[in-house]
Every structure is written in structure tokens, then in C-alpha cells.
Amino acid sequence: MLGRQGENGSVSVFLIMILAFIFAFVALFIDYARIAAMKVQSERLVRAAVRSVMSSYDVELQERYGLFAYGEQNGDRIMAGVLNSSLEKGKRSDRFDLLPMELDTSGLQMDRMLGDYEIFNREIGEEMKYKAPIDFTLELTSKLKPLSSSMKEASDTVDVLRKLQKLYDKREAALDRMLAKQRQASQSAGGIPGVLMGLYSTSISNESLGSSRVTTAAGIAAQYDDYVSKANEDANRSEDEEPQYADEIRDYLDDSADVMKRFGTKQSSAADSHDKLLQEADQAWEEAFDLNERMKEVIAASEHRSESAGYDEVSRSIIPGQAAETSGDDSAAIRGLRGQTDQLLLSESLFGDLKQEIGRQREAYRRVDQSLSSARSALAGASGLYGSSSGMKSTVIAARGDIDGYLRTYAESGSANKLDQEAALLERHRGSDKERKEKEKQGKAKLKEAAKILERINELDQKAKGYMEEYQTVQTYFNESIAFNKQAAEGESRGADLDDDPYDAGKSAMNGMDGLYGALGGMMSGVKDELLQNEYAAMYFNHFDISCLKEAAVNPNADLGDAAMNQLSIRNQELEYIVYGFHNPVGNISAAYAEIFASRLAIRTMEGLVKNSGLGHPLLVLAAALLYGVEMAIADMITLCTTGSVELSSYIKVKLTYRDHLRLFLLIHSNNEKKMSRMLALIRFNTGINPAERATYASGEVKIGMRLWFLPGVMKMIGKAGGGSDEVEGNRYYAVKQADYSY
């Protein structure tokens, strides 16, 4: 009996141990399940709390600019209120609380300010990612695409013809200078014939000594024999006889010496001048030849412009519902002008003839100079008694004949003048230069007329001083935005001017069109942040009322009235400020007007190339096209200021508004960081809200506790073994959860 009782007790203890182990195991999993549920619930609570905090966004920013940023309420208070209300116990006393959670601590961190470029750009992208590509493509790109091939040809043609025009005029000026130097060289000998003899004659008759004063070399030779005779006669007189011809002999010798001195001076001066001037003629020829070679290089490179890639990209793009393409005949007509540029070149054979003529002139004068030297040598014996009058006469006659022949060939007007023949040859090659110069003159006058409108706009600067405080405030905000984003300070902006030379104005206008189509071509390969930013600016910011300038557009001498003055507040030209960034009342308006005029000039010049292609001479066609372009651009500005829109081209009957032009210019002025800072500065100016102080990201953290029911020590070990941030203190388990939220 005693043995059996001992066995029963062992079994009971063993069963108790097993039951205790099972109970501990089950209790452990009960608390573990409660902890898992607590963690899930805690995570849901912190997410809900952070969402509740971020729901308190600034309504003005959202409604006015489509931006989300946290408002001015206390985020910690909102978060704590949401958590406390979520953890609040019910009023029933008999409720069983499986998860008796209690809030221990909570924290909120606000970050990623709206004023940061990355954040601002992301919010713009979210706002515009569906609107911008469709609007821009349908409203602008589809309008410009049909002009792409014609504008490409026009830009290439204006580029090559402008370069050729500059080189052409320099080359022709060098050739004119060459001929002028040759003429001056020939004229340097113009005083010598008169020293040799009065009127040319093939003979020189003897004259009596003293019959006339000796003033020429021919006079020396004519009186020489009589001089010798009378000098000998006086020399043979006896000592007591007075010389009878002393005065005549003295006058002859003095006059002869004076003639010889003048003769030598003129010959030496003419030889030096002739040599120097023909060297300068050679230099002018070299310059003209080099310019002609550079023209060849320009023509050869004209079909390989990198700036044309954008036009091709736009032309290849496929846009649903686009306008019809312009006629290929227009592009062909413009392209044909570049095929005529070879007629602007001078042949190597012509240059060879010009060079040889300089050499022939040099050689001709060398022979003249030798003949003159022979005459001087013969006349040198006139002071003695053993000279030869016949030698003097023959050399003087020969020298006079040689120099007269030289002067007839190079100095005197007439059919025999070689330089006149060369000038006539060059004049035939220049063809319509006179007509071209007249059109250039008219183009300059028209450009001055257009520039007067900018003068009227710029004159408002003195009357708009009352608005300067606004611009200074915006500039301060802009600089703070630049500094906040750690960007370099912006350099001083300069005002807008129109070129006073039609060729420079035309090339500048085409450069702008190159940039525009280059930007459009880049956009065709994929929507970029820049497009979204630009379209955001166009959608949310005001622009100037261009109709205020219609009086000045119609009459450039008219003063702008109060309507224009009232539009000079920065609130009325926000979009222009974003494009150009001038911190003064008139700078942005002036720049916009000048750039619109340039774009109209580019398009109208393209039309002018087509309309005037039949004029023949490429430079005349360019001058006529530029004149047409300036005249039509002025008319377009009047239309734009009067009606608010203008037809894109006489070939493409679609309208472009003032705002459309600014949207295009945003693409050309591609400086995204500066543009974003300008937008941020305007947002701050208009709302009083500093985007650099408004967060778009919240990170919330909570610590929630729950009393454990079983084995807190074991749970503490498990918690530590898990390596997380959770912890166990006494019989309470604490879970730490974090949630993040971004607009």
C-alpha cells in the first residue's frame, strides 16, 4: 500500500509539471499574440495620426497655386489629440479590454520644405504631369511644326548669307582700297611731266640764252648750246675786257640748278610713294583674296549647321490633329538661294589678273624711273661746257613720252586706263549692290522706328518709381531662395535692345528661332521637368496686358498713358518676371516686346526670302527679305497689341497670343533654378507665406505601452532577443512605431 501511494504522488507531480509547462507555453503565446496585435494597432494609430496632421495643409497655397504644404497649426498637438482620442476607453465598466494600450510619448518631425528646388519641382510635376504635355503639344507645338522645314531653310540661309555679306563687303572694300592705292601711286608721278617740258613735243628747238627763264628740263637742253657758246666767248676775252654775258650765264645756271633740284625731288618722292602705295595695294589684294577664300569655306560649311537638328526633330514628330504642312516649294525656293551663293565668289583667274596688273604697274613705273634717271644724268652736264645738247634733248623727250604713256595707262581717265577697266569689271560683278544698299538703308530706318517703342516703354521707368518697393521686396525673397538652395547669386540683368543693323537683327532673330526649335526638339524626345515648370508658370501667374502698348505700337512717338503705368506692378507682369528676371518695372516688359518682335522678324524674314527669291542676286534677296521682315514685324506688333493675338504666318493661319509667346520664351530661357526661385519669390510676395519655412513631409513616432498578463520576464528576454526598439519595463510592454507622410 505504501509503495503504491508513493507512485501516485510521483505521477501527480509529473502531471503538474507537464501542465505547468503547457500553461506557460500557452500563456507565452497569448501575450505574444496580444503584443503582435498591439504592434499592428500602434502602427495604424501612428499612420492615422500623421495623416491627420498632414491634412492640415495650407488652403491658400493649394487653391491659389495647386501646392501642398503644411499650414500654421501645431502638429504635435494635432497628433497627440488624435492618438489620445483613439486610445480613449469606453464608458462601460464590464467591458473586457483585450489590448489595454496607453500612450506613453509621441513626437513629430516636419521636414522637406516647399522652398527646396527638389520638393517644389516634384509638386509642380504632380500638378502638371497630365495637363502640361497635352496643352503644350496641342496649343503650341502643333502650330509651329508645319513651319519647321521652312524655318530651318530660312535660318540656314540667313546664317550663310549674313556671313557672306560681311565678308563680301569687306572683300569689295579691300578691292576698292587696292585700286585706290594703285591710282594714288600713279598720281604720285603727276608733277614730273611739267618739270620735263611744257607741252609734249617730239623735238626741242634751240633757244638763245636769256630769251626766257629756264623752268623745265627741256629749257635747259634748248639753251645749252647757246650757253656753251657765250660762256666760251666770255672766257676768251682779254683780262681788261668785261664779260658781256655774265648775267645771262648766271641766270641760266641758277635756273638749271633749281630745275634739277625740283626734278630730283619729284622723282625721288614719286618713286618712294609709288613703291609704298603699291605695297599697300598688294596687301589689300592679299586681304581680298583671303576674304574670298573664307567665303568659300562658309559656303562649304553652310549645309552642316548643328543648330538645324531641332528643326528636323520637330519636323519628324507626329502630332495628332496638327495643321497642314507648308508647301515644299517654299523650302525649295529658300534652299535654292544657297545654291546661288557661288556667284558671290571671284574666280582665281580674276584675282590672278588683278595681282598681275599691280606687277605690271610696278614694272611700268620702273621703266619710267629709269628713263627719268637717264634724263637727269644727261642734264647733269648742263652746268659744264662739255655736255651734249642732243643727248639732253633725246633723253628728255624719251622720259616725257614714257611718263605720259604711264599716266595715260594708270592715272588719266579714258578707255586706255587699266585701272578704270578693272573697276568696270568689278562693278559688273557687283551687279545690284546699289539697290541692295538702298534696301539696307530702308531696313535700318525701319528698325529705328521699332526701337522707338522700346524707348517709350523704358521712359516709363522714371514714372513708375512707386512700384520699385515691390520689386525690391521680390528681389530680397528671390535672393533668399537662391541662398536657401545654395545657388550662386544672380548677375545683374541688362535691358533689351534691338540691333540697328538689319543683318545683325535678322541673325539674332534666327538664333532665337534656332533655340526655340532646339528646345521643342528636345521636348519631343520626352517630357522634361522644364516643360512642366514652364506650363505651371503660364497657368498660375499673371502676365502683362499687351493692349496697353497699342498707342505706341501704332505711333512710336506717342507717349504711353496711365493704362500702361497701372500695369507696371509686379502683380501684372509675373510671367514676364519669371522669364527674364528684371527687378524693375519696365525691364521685363521691354525684354518681352523685343523678343516677340524678334520672333516675328524671323518668321516674316522667312516669308520675305520666298517672296523675293526672284530678284536673283543672293545678297539683294537677303536685304529685301530683311526689309520685308522688319516692316511686317512692325505691323504684327500693332496687330498683337490691338487684338491680343497674331497669325503665326501668312502660310499658317493659326493664332498666337501674347501668352503663347511667353510660353515659348520660357523654353528658350532655360535656367530652371533661377525660374523656380522667381516663382517661389512671387508666391511668398502674394501670400505672405515663405515656402522655405513650410514643410511637405512629416515623420511621426509614438511609444505605446500595454500591461502583460503572463511571464513579463520571458517576454522581456524575447523582446531583447528580437533586437528591436521595443522594450519591457516591469509588467508593461512598450512598442515604438514610426510613420512618414509626404504630399
Q: Can you describe what's shown?
A:
- The protein has 743 residues and is an alpha+beta fold.
- It has helices at residues 2-54, 59-65, 75-87, 117-128, 131-144, 148-187, 192-196, 217-235, 246-301, 309-316, 328-339, 348-379, 389-410, 418-430, 433-463, 468-484, 502-524, 529-540, 550-554, 562-566, 574-580, 587-611, 618-643, 658-668, 672-687, 712-722, and strands at 101-113, 645-647, 655-657, 695-707, 727-729, 732-742.
- It has a four-stranded antiparallel beta sheet.
- A hairpin with a 7-residue loop joins strand 2 and strand 3.
- Helix 8 (217-235) packs antiparallel against helix 9 and helix 21 packs across helix 22.
- The longest helix has 56 residues, at 246-301.
- The model has no long low-confidence stretch (mean pLDDT 87).
List its salient traits.
6 strands; single chain; elongated; 26 helices; about 750 residues; alpha+beta
Short description:
The protein contains 26 helices and six strands. The protein is an alpha+beta fold.
Uncertain parts: none
| SS elements, strand count | 6
Mean pLDDT: 87
- Based on secondary structure, the structural category is alpha+beta
The whole-angstrom Rg is 49 Å
Cα-to-Cα separation, first versus last residue: 82 Å
Helix content: 55-70%
Largest sheet: 4 strands, antiparallel
Overall body shape: elongated
User: Number of helical runs?
Assistant: 26
Strand content: 5-15%
List the topology elements.
Layout (H helix, E strand, L loop, with lengths): L1 H53 L4 H7 L9 H13 L13 E13 L3 H12 L2 H14 L3 H40 L4 H5 L20 H19 L10 H56 L7 H8 L11 H12 L8 H32 L9 H22 L7 H13 L2 H31 L4 H17 L17 H23 L4 H12 L9 H5 L7 H5 L7 H7 L6 H25 L6 H26 L1 E3 L7 E3 H11 L3 H16 L7 E13 L4 H11 L4 E3 L2 E11 L1
Antiparallel strand pairs: 1-4, 2-3, 4-6, 5-6
Helix pairs in contact: 1-3, 4-18, 5-18, 6-9, 6-10, 6-11, 6-17, 6-22, 8-9, 8-13, 9-12, 10-17, 11-22, 12-13, 15-23, 16-25, 17-22, 17-24, 18-24, 21-22, 21-25, 22-23
